[in-house]
Amino acid sequence: MPIVTLTTDFGLRDHSVAAIKGALYKEMDTVRIVDVSHEISPFDNIEASYIIKNAYRHFPDGSVHIIGVDSEQTPDNRHIAVFLDNHYFICANNGIISLIASEIKPDKIVEINIHKTVESIFPMIDVFVKVAGHILRGGTLEVIGKPITTLKTQELIEPQINDAKNRIIGHVIYIDNFGNVVTNVKKSFFDAYRKTRNFEVKARHVKFDTLVESYSSGIDFTLPPKKRGEEAKKLALFNSSGYLELAIYKSNPKVYGGASSLYGLQPMDTITIDFL
Amino acid sequence: MPIVTLTTDFGLRDHSVAAIKGALYKEMDTVRIVDVSHEISPFDNIEASYIIKNAYRHFPDGSVHIIGVDSEQTPDNRHIAVFLDNHYFICANNGIISLIASEIKPDKIVEINIHKTVESIFPMIDVFVKVAGHILRGGTLEVIGKPITTLKTQELIEPQINDAKNRIIGHVIYIDNFGNVVTNVKKSFFDAYRKTRNFEVKARHVKFDTLVESYSSGIDFTLPPKKRGEEAKKLALFNSSGYLELAIYKSNPKVYGGASSLYGLQPMDTITIDFL
Amino acid sequence: MPIVTLTTDFGLRDHSVAAIKGALYKEMDTVRIVDVSHEISPFDNIEASYIIKNAYRHFPDGSVHIIGVDSEQTPDNRHIAVFLDNHYFICANNGIISLIASEIKPDKIVEINIHKTVESIFPMIDVFVKVAGHILRGGTLEVIGKPITTLKTQELIEPQINDAKNRIIGHVIYIDNFGNVVTNVKKSFFDAYRKTRNFEVKARHVKFDTLVESYSSGIDFTLPPKKRGEEAKKLALFNSSGYLELAIYKSNPKVYGGASSLYGLQPMDTITIDFL
User: A160-275, superfamily in CATH?
Assistant: First the structure.
């Protein structure tokens, strides 16, 4: 059964997500709809980039991913459909795909041109759902859009290396449900410059000179739970998506704070990695 | 595959929604269940009315919509099933359907009478799921209830026009995920009285004398983003559901406030439209 | 169609839940995935116990329930699969199943041993989804794990009776979406000790000497709504899951407080029942 995923900033209280699902079932009875996230911060393309990048690759080839974040069509912001890594993406050309496309070259990009003369006030239903239906029925992208060759990119989405090749400058791109702090530094980027050198990760007041393999790595399980200490819970690792994460073992951000509040780090804050 | 939608005030943390889904799958293996919203404010019939009205019409004909808001059966509050606009609704007779029924006459209404002698403590499963199963298997409403002819209505759910026909008095009925303020004034109602006159929409400290076609209408895209100005983001329009909405372009209520907080408007607040 | 349910503390904003669903669809195209809850408080095994216990029994026999709460494998915390009451559970051996297993003896428990040498950083996908796929394809538990005979239990999860058999000491285990306070005292436990005696339920400043049958029991519906009084809304009952609950009729915790805030009760607080 073909799969369509939905990623939006519409929240789960409004009727919008259900309206899209109803319209998709009208378009194709047998589709399987999966929510990726509807809790993207309003109009936050970087957050949406990170979420869709790490979700899509777990789905079967041929899945269609609709992204409804900042999707009103304006002169700045055109609707596109992209075929990449055997997956389809339908979204606005606002940089959301650039985090994926920086690693995997798109096979095809089209600027959607099935719009009526008056712009739609609910493009997710009037445009994106129609395009998804077209793709699910085996239609080609050229039928619903004009091929283009480049995608808009997002500022700050990629980490930088200095000229001396001894400092990476990255940014926080996401705070997860446990309050852990995700940066835009991928393991492959880090490894390419580190070689065999020692390193120091710095972000505001915290420093790490080792990276661990799992969230519980710092814990000495031979000690009784109360003697294991709070310091041992602080850690940095490459998370399951391959991004450098500054974390706290078993943190509960609602009760006693997570890495974000304890380390004082927010999205877009700078982190540096010095190679020594 | 038949569709059952769910609209409740149960939230997504409790087990209640999953229990209903499990019971529905036991009732009929092939049903497709779609969440409309489980974040309705507790016992808020007006919010539920607005959400289900704008969701249901996007679903295929024959869909069954279960609404579990204020659904404990009491002497004031009887369980009903309604067939209207080729859709089935199962809910309490507490005004939730009145927003839909004010525009589209129900074809059939029954007061459900399959209850045991002791009232159920979880009527969604013991009554609504059973009724949904009956309908999905092709059963008629008369088998599970006694036909009635009128539905309870809700106060404040409809806007009023004054005797001189030059002022509409409406109310805020919903604040959406972006903080935008939705009123109960529909385009058809507004157009019927406005004719060709000028108008002024007033709500607390804000006034609008034009209605735009899309959220970005006020923006001059020939200017660089930083020069487009904050005032240009304030707007009033008929939203994709046809209701008058007082909005702010690209607002993020979590970070710098949305229309609701910036205009100082809450559900049930009055808005007036004067025709000049 | 086989059913897999998901219960996690991952929240609905992150990509994690969607990643698990994608992986499950890759594992088996025809599976039906149902969310139980993703809003479990981080690492809160007691909350997870209560939620999964009251959800699973509404699902068809043969359903597979994946629980991703506190599921990183450590020396303290091994992965298990349990067959019990014709349902399968895949989780960590951290007490989550003990609330169910205290009433219904497991037919089979295995400690999962399909792990690679390096521990997985995302065990839900690398281990739990694989085990679910194995079960859905008809595989036996012995193939993916080593039979064990006992489950870890959780402190405070069961109420206690004193030596004189005239006082039950229980605890609050959950606050629901309406702010109602759920305790760990089941009707069967209460009835077994009460016999025909009078009783008094006490928790902080509130006392109840009667238990009602429904949330609206205290309301005199012959009076007009404004004369029905606030005191009549306070009640104690056995909820639809059979647990003693201290509640308020039609409470809205977001606006004017629910039982939890008005009675001053939080998870793990003590409640006593004296038989007189």
Answer: Bacterial fluorinating enzyme like (2.40.30.90)
For residue C32, give the chain B residue with the closest CA: B32
Report the percentage of chain A scoring pLDDT > 90. 76
Q: Which residue of A has its CA nearest to C41?
A: A252
Report how far residue A183's alpha carbon sits from residue A156's, in angstroms, rounded to the nearest whole number.
11
pLDDT for the residue numbered C223: 84
Query: Which of C9, C10, C13 is the best mutation test for A, with the most CBs of A within 10 A?
Result: C13
Nearest to C100 by CA among C141, C158, C145: C158
What percentage of chain B reaches a pLDDT higher than 70? 98
CA distance B159 to B184: 6
ipTM of the complex: 0.93
As a whole number, mean pLDDT of residues C82-95 equals 96
The third-level CATH classification (topology) of the domain covering C3-147 is Rossmann fold (3.40.50)
Confidence tier at C119 by pLDDT (50, 70, 90) = low
**Whether residue B62 has pLDDT greater than 90:** yes
Is C1's Cβ below 8 Å from some Cβ in A? no
Of A11, A13, A119, the CB nearest to B214: A119
* Region for residue C97 given its phi and psi (left: phi exceeds 0; alpha: psi -120 to 50; beta: otherwise): alpha
Query: Nearest Cα to B182, choosing from B146, B218, B157?
Result: B157
Annotated domain spans of chain C: 3-147, 160-275
Quick one: how many helices (H) and strands (E) in chain B? Answer: 8, 15
Residue C238: its H or E element:
strand C234-238
Q: What is the pLDDT, as a whole number, of residue B241?
A: 92
